[in-house]
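Figure 3 (text version): structure tokens given as input.
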């Protein structure tokens, strides 16, 4: 009868605590073997085989799997093998694969440490780093898809450099030895100005002595437009033509963003200086000709203002131009200040003008007060208001005629008795011209000087049940007749304003017409109603104020 011999065994993660010398034990879960060695019952699991041959695999999963090291003194032959850690290959040891289809080994976690050479007839592919303390050489191309790091690369001894060609390959090329010369260096775009400063380019030699080329003087430079908010140095040269050295000065700068030109020190300009912005100076502005401005000349520095000495004239253009300081009073001293031009020239001040001497002018326009210790005389006071007419009239109508205006009388020369209804021939406010008879020319008033505005102040109190009816006030004008053979005069409606009557009450109807009317022009005042009204027998208070220009 056959007998079964069982050796000491265990399962799971168990291992024998001790074994007598020569005693075997096995873990039936992992397949691990142990044996006892020595008199102290030491447990060991290392085995030595002169040759281990497997017809298939080393485990049921089709691969060698081990948590420790697999040491092979000879050749390890397998269709494939998977290693969880590194493989150490001593010199002259080569791993060969018998699987022609795969042709490689897979290392799951660790790397491959090779003390000798690695020889392969195919590709070596690595997703991580490939590190070698020796030389990596190949008879074919070495393809690198990441970066090349060479911190300790040696120094070259000739003029060869490594370049990246258009085909993506690194190649060597020869360059001029001058790029390695630390004494002269290479001229670049960023350093050309400093390196060539003071150099006569016509004497500059380029190249070696056997193939020298003499540089010619540049006729143009490459300019780049800029709007940067920064002060740039303005370049200057010593001569107007031929080869010149380009120079700069700390006293001459330009800002493309603010369009400001900064000039330090003193200097002169032979032509005109035109500026759309502010012209400022920390010192004096000295002028031997005319100072021409279309805007406000502001003295922002200290001092009392402009002292005009040896100046032919101070010429100011425009309608709102001023000379002086905005924040403080301005004094202009000199024997004479002349303002001239082909048209009207005004000196305008929004505040007070203090004059200790005489002022002679063909025209002086003042919007504020004029205070003088002496007599102020003038042939023309521009902007002064004058009362052309002031009085009370009586509109003698019962009732008012619709769409007719009352301007005066045609009976017994009674100027204040307005009894004539002058038909407009249409609605008063939309009828531009009314024709009046020659006898009624006397209704008009002649302007004594050029006028810039006409102001009418009228209050009217009609009788009759007229509350709410239209109260029309019109200003008419016409050129003054002079030996005119026509029996009628056409007067033009210049402006009008509407209000509403209130029976038995004075109602105000005021307006100002702004226009340039010439001296000798005639104006007419007309009162009426566009409604079929019951208004009648109305006293009216009238002021007519004109502004001189």
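Below: residues designed for each position.
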């Amino acid at each position: 009868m056959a007998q079964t011999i069982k050796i000491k065994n265990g399962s799971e993660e168990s291992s024998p605590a001790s074994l007598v010398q020569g005693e075997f034990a096995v873990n039936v879960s992992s397949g691990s073997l142990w044996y006892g060695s020595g008199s102290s019952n030491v447990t060991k699991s290392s085995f030595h085989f002169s040759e281990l041959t497997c017809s298939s695999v080393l485990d049921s999963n089709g691969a060698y799997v081990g948590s420790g090291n697999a040491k092979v003194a000879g050749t390890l032959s397998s269709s494939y093998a998977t290693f969880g850690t590194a493989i150490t290959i001593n010199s002259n040891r080569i791993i060969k694969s018998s699987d022609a289809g795969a042709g490689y080994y897979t290392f799951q976690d660790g790397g491959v440490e090779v003390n000798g050479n690695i020889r392969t007839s195919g590709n070596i592919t690595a997703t991580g780093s490939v590190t070698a303390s020796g030389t990596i050489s190949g008879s074919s191309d070495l393809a690198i898809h990441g970066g090349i790091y060479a911190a300790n690369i040696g120094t070259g001894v000739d003029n060869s450099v490594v370049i990246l060609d258009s085909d993506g390959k690194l190649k060597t090329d020869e360059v001029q030895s001058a790029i390695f010369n630390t004494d002269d260096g290479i001229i670049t775009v960023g350093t050309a100005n400093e390196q060539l400063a003071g150099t006569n380019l016509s004497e500059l030699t380029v190249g070696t002595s056997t193939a020298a080329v003499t540089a010619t003087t540049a006729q143009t430079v490459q300019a780049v437009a800029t709007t940067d908010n920064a002060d740039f140095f303005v370049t200057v040269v010593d001569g107007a033509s031929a080869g010149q050295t380009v120079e700069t000065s700390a006293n001459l700068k330009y800002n493309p963003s603010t369009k400001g030109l900064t000039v330090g020190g003193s200097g002169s300009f032979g032509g005109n200086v035109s500026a759309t912005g502010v012209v400022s100076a920390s010192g004096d502005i000295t002028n031997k000709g005319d100072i021409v401005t279309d805007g406000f000349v502001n003295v922002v520095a200290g001092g009392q203002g402009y002292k005009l000495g040896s100046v032919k004239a101070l010429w100011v253009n425009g309608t709102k131009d001023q000379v002086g300081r905005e924040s403080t009073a301005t004094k202009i001293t000199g024997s004479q200040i002349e303002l001239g031009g082909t048209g009207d020239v005004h000196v305008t001040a929004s505040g007070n003008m203090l004059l200790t001497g005489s002022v002679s002018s063909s025209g002086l326009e003042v919007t504020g007060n004029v205070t003088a210790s002496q007599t102020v005389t003038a042939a023309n006071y521009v902007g002064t208001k004058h009362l052309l007419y002031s009085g009370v009239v009586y509109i003698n109508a019962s009732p008012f005629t619709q769409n007719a205006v009352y301007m005066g009388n045609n009976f017994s020369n009674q100027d204040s008795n307005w009894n004539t209804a002058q038909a407009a021939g249409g609605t008063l406010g939309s009828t531009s011209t009314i024709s009046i008879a020659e006898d009624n020319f006397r209704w008009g008033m002649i302007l004594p000087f050029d006028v810039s505005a006409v102001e009418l102040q009228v209050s009217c109190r009609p009788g009759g049940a007229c509350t709410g009816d239209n109260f029309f006030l019109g200003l008419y004008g016409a050129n003054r007749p002079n030996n005119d053979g026509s029996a009628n005069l056409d007067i033009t409606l210049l402006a009008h304003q509407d209000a509403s009557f209130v029976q038995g009450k004075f109602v105000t109807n005021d307006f100002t017409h702004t226009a340039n009317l010439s001296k000798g022009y005639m104006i007419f005042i007309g009162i009426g109603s566009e409604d079929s009204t019951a208004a009648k027998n109305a006293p009216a208070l009238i002021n007519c104020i004109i502004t001189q220009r």
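The first helix runs from residue 192 to 195.
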